[in-house]
Amino acid sequence: MSTESESTAPTAPDWRRHVSRGARRCLGWAAVLVALYLVLGLLGCRAYTGVFAGLLGGHPLALLGGAAYGLLHVVVWFLVPPLVLGALASALLRRLLTPT
Amino acid sequence: MNIIRRFALPICILVAGAVWLPMVARLHRVDTARFQVQTGMAPDAAALAESQLRLWRDPQWQAAELARMRQRNPEWDFMGRTFFVLALANISLREPARTTECLGIMDAIIDETLALESAEGMYVFLLDYARGRPWVMEPVRSQFLDGEIAMMLAARCYVADRPAYREALRERVALMTERMQRGPVLCAESYPDECWLFCNSIGLAAIRMADGLDGTDHSELLTAWLATAQGQLTDPQTGMLIAACTVEGQPHPAGPGPEGSSIFLTAHMLELLDADYAQDQYRRARAELGREFLGFGYAREWPEGVEAQMDIDSGPIIPVIDASAGASGLAILGAAAFHDDAYLAALLGSLEFAGFPVREGDSLRFAASNGVGDAVMLYALVQGPLWARVQETRPYVD
């Protein structure tokens, strides 16, 4: 047990050191966007995505929720993965380029 | 080395984007056999049919849903009926065991449509501006209603004959042919001095279907229409039919050129008149309007370089790529009708990704669509047998 904590404890801060401020921001925004997407999904906003085709009347909040959900659906699929993968890859690259 | 460290993040994001973006469509690729099969019903087409059938089985839901749709756009209510009746005719021919159920619903839709038209007049299914300007032809009628009602009646009679509907079909055909022959380009008005080729092609297909049923012969009108359309209603740049003209045959400002929300359906209707010409129109529409972006299929409303405003037919247009909801929905019909399998798969991938399918039990609907959108998609996925049956009757173009 003590051997395991001794071997992992120093590497974690070492990794964090290579995650740039920009990468942290990317990861933070990605988390916010995914969380918002999930929350709107749980609130049932998916049912109101017809707002994009101008197909629904109804409460403005529902229309806003549907529009936001539709937009986030595209963002989460197209933008978030490159942000997350790019941020992690940049940390790895910076780690590899750091002289030991 | 420091420069690389400094730009590591943007470089990595760009590389990750280049790797990831082409994969998104792969992750949303659909098995087209889930939507469309040659014989019988594909599972998702059956589920889509089920959600539409529920609407007509439940009078309360039906009244509420149709009233809501008619309030937003009365055309959607009417077109939803037409496409659903066409879909039911094809379902009957695909699965004869369901014929009785389908005929019952088709009759309910047709009777309710005729009753509404009779009680409230044609304006019940037209947009408000139909009352705001003078019509050219007297007495005032709309080819939009006459064509689609004739199409519904004919489709029903191809599944199983019903004398009252045959008679009503003959009356509509007589009205349409008389009015079309009055205009110099053989087109009748859908709206005041607006002759939409969408409506006129449906009317022509219905006339052709009536000829097959009754053994009548309107081949002179149909071949004359094709010749006139190729000479006077064709966009010189693209070789595609324009969307709308005046009674005198001038391109109408509402649709002076080809439109995606019109041409895919028009080409499908013209299959019954001249299959080669229809195929050529589809091929041109596919080249000028059909697009794929990162593996997702869609259609533009207008060819590149055409400046036009988004309208109720185009639906919303996604900036930059110019994807039109209306054109893309009807492109599914075009791709399915003309067996453009690769484009159909790409379009269905987009539908799966951006249509927000809602599967509840054995039914399927698309949250980003509405009744008419779902009816068009259902018809696109089951079409085929009805046209084949019509084509078995007398062909005009050898």
| Poorly predicted residue ranges of chain A | 1-9
Query: Approximately how much beta-strand content do the residues of chain A carry?
Result: under 5%
The major pleated sheet of chain A works out as: none
Q: Which H/E pattern describes the elements of chain B?
A: HHHHHHHHEHHEHHEEEEHHEEHH
Q: Shape of chain A from CA axes?
A: rod-shaped
Number of helices of chain A: 5
Total strands of chain A: 0
Could you say which structural class the secondary elements and strand pairing of chain A correspond to? mainly alpha
Total discrete domains of chain A: 1
Task: Give me the count of strands of chain B.
Answer: 8
Question: What is the straight-line distance between the termini of chain B?
Answer: 73 Å
Topology of this structure?
The complex is a heterodimer of chains A (100) and B (398).
Chain A lengths: L1 H7 L2 H8 L2 H22 L17 H19 L1 H18 L3
Chain B lengths: L1 H5 L1 H20 L15 H15 L1 H14 L1 H21 L4 H22 L22 H17 L3 H20 L12 E2 H18 L4 H14 L11 E2 L14 H11 L4 H15 E4 L2 E4 L17 E2 L4 E2 H13 L3 H14 L2 E4 L2 E4 L4 H12 L2 H8 L6
Antiparallel strand pairs in B: 1-2, 3-4, 5-6, 7-8
Relevant terms:
heterodimer, A: 100 residues, mainly alpha, 74% helix, 0% strand, disordered N terminus, B: 398 residues, two-stranded antiparallel sheet
Descriptive report:
Chain A is mostly helical and 100 residues long. Chain A is built from five helices and no strands. Chain B has 398 residues and is mainly alpha-helical. In chain B, 60% of the residues lie in helices and 6% in strands. In chain B, the strands form four sheets. Chain B has a two-stranded antiparallel sheet with strand order 1-2. Chain B has 16 helices and eight strands. The mean pLDDT of chain B is 92.
